[in-house]
């Protein structure tokens, strides 16, 4: 296909072998399309690959482009050409609008087709975004507040109630771990237990319910030396999230502790996503916080998805109609994007990928300590401005 579509160009360094040293994946065929002293990095995706492959294609493509540019041997490499099936196009097209420092061309193509169809990145349709409103969930929380306090007594003040996005259920959590839930409005049902072992509460079971919650509080703690205990091990990112929601200034002292929203569902025409934390600075600048406990190559683009949505709503000035940030003046400026992870858990390719992001996206990497369960300590904050990095250790 490439030979037909690019007559006079020579395809070199073709491979789909994995290489962990350079973070090359078997999901994609990669190569170099060369004519004279000019060469394009190219990458193709078959529709039969893993479901995560379309979502990660831009990240792996930029990693390949960066490698080619650093090993080009006097070859000029203007950019990257990506060939992908139809279902991968929309997500990557929207992301591609926010990339700079290289030419980027996207093509829709399936094996067996004679020629690929180039996708127009610059003429994307306007992003359609909506958030799930908060008001219904807040009403549900207020309605069941007294009933739950009566059942749980002194334990009520030690758990966290989180309305679910549909406004039809309350999640009861300890350090981010759901241990119980309330379903329904006028005739609520209380369910308790970890996933796979959930039972319905009846008044005769009250002693069992209270014993389970006490055990959850005792075991979901940094003092638990059994790190294989499911109460300690499960949903680590939710645990970190719950700590930061309690004090968002640990991420950045500029952020307002008064307005912090976790697990915010957001929708575009092609996807449903959940923003880890949505907050705002003391001066009204929105902030998107993405958390990661393990190395993730695709972290920059997962975070970019949420940043795009919030930036779009900020520009329209419609965030508050969904019930967020009542009573404050929000800036229409694009939000800051915070990437938070243990200091040595950022993937080695992160900086090279971020160099291709539009300079208008203010990205701040926040490295925290490994033993964050005991106390979150920020080891560094590195802010990226105009394609560069500046920062300081804390």
Cα(first) to Cα(last) distance is 53 Å
Shape: elongated
Number of strands: 19
Overall tally of domains: 3
Task: Find the CATH topology of the largest domain.
Answer: Trna Endonuclease, Chain: A, domain 1
Strand content range? 25-35%
- Structural class comes to alpha+beta
- Helix and strand run: HEEEHEHEEEHEEEEEHHHEEEHEHEEE
Going across the biggest sheet, name each strand in turn. 7-13-14-15-16-17-18-19
Average of the residue pLDDT scores: 90
Characterize the largest beta sheet: strand count, sense, and whether it forms a barrel.
8 strands, mixed
CATH architecture of the largest domain: 3-Layer(aba) Sandwich
Could you give the topology of this structure?
Elements: H1 2-5, E1 10-15, E2 28-35, E3 38-45, H2 53-70, E4 79-84, H3 89-96, E5 103-108, E6 117-119, E7 129-131, H4 135-152, E8 160-163, E9 169-174, E10 177-183, E11 189-192, E12 199-200, H5 206-219, H6 230-233, H7 236-246, E13 255-268, E14 271-281, E15 286-291, H8 299-316, E16 336-342, H9 350-354, E17 363-368, E18 378-385, E19 388-393
Parallel strand pairs: 3-4, 4-5, 15-16, 16-17
Antiparallel strand pairs: 1-2, 2-3, 5-6, 7-13, 8-9, 9-10, 10-11, 11-12, 13-14, 14-15, 17-18, 18-19
Helix pairs in contact: 2-3
């Amino acid at each position: 296909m490439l030979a037909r579509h690019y007559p006079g160009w020579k395809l070199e360094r073709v491979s789909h072998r994995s290489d962990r040293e350079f973070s090359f994946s078997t999901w994609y065929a990669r190569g170099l399309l060369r004519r004279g002293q000019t060469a394009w990095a190219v990458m193709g995706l078959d529709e039969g690959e893993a479901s995560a492959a379309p979502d990660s294609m831009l990240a792996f493509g930029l990693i390949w482009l960066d490698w080619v540019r650093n090993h080009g041997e006097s070859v000029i490499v203007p950019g990257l050409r990506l060939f992908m099936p139809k279902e991968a196009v929309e997500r990557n097209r929207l992301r591609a609008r926010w990339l700079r420092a290289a030419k980027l061309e996207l093509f829709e193509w399936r094996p067996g087709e004679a020629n690929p169809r180039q996708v127009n990145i610059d003429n994307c349709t306007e992003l359609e975004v909506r958030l799930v409103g908060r008001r219904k969930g807040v009403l549900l929380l207020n309605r069941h507040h007294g009933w739950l306090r009566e059942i749980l007594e002194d334990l009520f003040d030690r758990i966290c109630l989180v309305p679910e996005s549909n406004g039809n259920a309350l999640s009861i959590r300890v350090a981010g771990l759901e241990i119980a839930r309330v379903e329904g409005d006028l005739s609520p049902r209380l369910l308790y237990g970890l996933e796979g072992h959930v039972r319905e509460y009846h008044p005769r079971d009250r002693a069992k319910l209270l014993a389970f919650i006490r055990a959850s509080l005792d075991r979901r703690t940094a003092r638990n030396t059994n790190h294989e205990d499911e109460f300690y091990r499960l949903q680590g990112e939710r645990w970190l999230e719950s700590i930061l929601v309690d004090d968002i200034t640990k991420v950045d002292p500029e952020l307002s502790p008064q307005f912090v929203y976790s697990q915010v569902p957001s929708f575009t025409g092609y996807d449903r996503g959940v923003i880890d934390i949505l907050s705002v600075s003391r001066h009204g600048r929105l902030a998107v916080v993405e958390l990661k406990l393990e190395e993730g190559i695709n972290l920059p683009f997962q975070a970019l998805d949420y940043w795009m949505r919030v930036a779009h709503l900020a520009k329209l000035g419609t965030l508050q109609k969904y019930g967020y940030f009542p009573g404050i003046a929000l800036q229409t400026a694009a939000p800051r994007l915070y990437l938070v992870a243990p200091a040595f858990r950022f993937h080695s390719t992160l900086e090279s990928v971020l160099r291709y992001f539009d300079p208008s996206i203010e990205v701040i990497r926040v490295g925290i300590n490994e033993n964050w369960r005991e106390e979150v300590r920020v080891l560094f904050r590195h802010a990226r401005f105009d394609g560069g990095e500046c920062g300081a250790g804390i």
